Amino acid sequence: MYTFAVISPTKVAAALVGGVTYHAFLHIESGNSTTVTDTGDEEYASVRPEHVVRQDAIDNATKVASDPDKQRYLFLKYGLRILFVDEVSMLSHDQMVYLDHYFRTIRQNDLPFGGLQVCLCGDALQLPPLVEQPKKPAGRHPVYFFETISFLSGKFGVLYLTEIHRQKNPIFTLILNMMRDGICNQDICDYINSKWGDKVNKICALRVLYALHQQFDEEMAELKELDKNRCGWEYGLSFFLYFKSDSFYKTICSRKS
User: Fold this and answer.
1) Neighbours of 5 (CB within 10 A)
2) What's the pLDDT at 228?
3) Mean pLDDT in the chain?
4) Alpha helices in the chain (DSSP H)
5) Which among 66, 147, 148, 187 has most CB atoms closer than 10 A?
6) C-alpha separations of 27 from 33, 40, 63, 204, 207 in Å
7) How far is CA 241 from CA 4, 214, 220, in A?
8) Which residues are paired to 248 by β-bridges?
9) For 63-79, how does the pLDDT look when each residue is reduced to its tens digit (9 = 90+)?
10) Against a cut of 0.85, is the pTM above it?
């Protein structure tokens, strides 16, 4: 019998698979192991070098190993056999490096992830990591998990899941696959909008909503305020259009009939 753990970058995703968040599992604060360090000047925010991320992981793992209560340390070193990472597309470059060197230290093994079997689940063309690039970096800082030496040296096998369970309509399935590849033309918009029928009279606004709850709430509050001031319309959320390489959603808001 294998002992395993399931982690995910977000609370919602973790809850859906019966796991815990990346940060909770590693006992780190949610603000750590991110790409950009605040220097007090947004324009010149500095990128955390990879060696700093590695050292953070080593320090954290060493702290776990030296804890008088050895239960967690013994589980991570000897008990845990498989680690499942769900929604891996949201795992940043730095978080992947951190995970790798954390387990190398805990398990005292210099193989990738300390020799732990790791199963990455997700779609790299879906939600990206929520990291911020500095405005004036010396070149682009790697963002994605698959840009790490940790991932490349892990020699992961790839298993493609081809059966679609959630959708039965072949046209809508085709549209979703096209949008997954960043393709959204007028024909797609017309087809989706046609399915609203009498529910929607007119597409009336294109808004940009960032993938943070606070910004989402602020945008929706602004829409409602504009709505009241103009003509008493009520805005409803029609659908999300996600384009790869963007860190935000483009959302079409529609007028209710």
Assistant:
1) 17
2) 54
3) 75
4) 11-16, 22-26, 50-66, 71-74, 93-106, 149-153, 170-180, 186-194, 213-230
5) 148
6) 12, 26, 11, 46, 37
7) 35, 20, 17
8) 210
9) 888 888 888 888 899 99
10) no
pLDDT of residue 41: 41
- Higher confidence at residue 182 or residue 85? 85
Write down the residue that tokens 């393709």 correspond to. Answer: 183
Joined tokens for residue 97:
């490096």
Amino acid at 180: R
User: How far is CA 24 from each of CA 7, 19, 136, 203, 228, rounded to the nearest angstrom?
Assistant: 9, 10, 32, 42, 42
CA distance 99 to 152: 14
Q: Which residues contact 18 (CB under 8 A, 6 or more apart)?
A: 6
Q: 86 — alpha (psi -120 to 50), left (phi > 0) or beta?
A: beta
Q: Where do the structural domains in the chain lie, given as residue ranges?
A: 4-153, 170-256
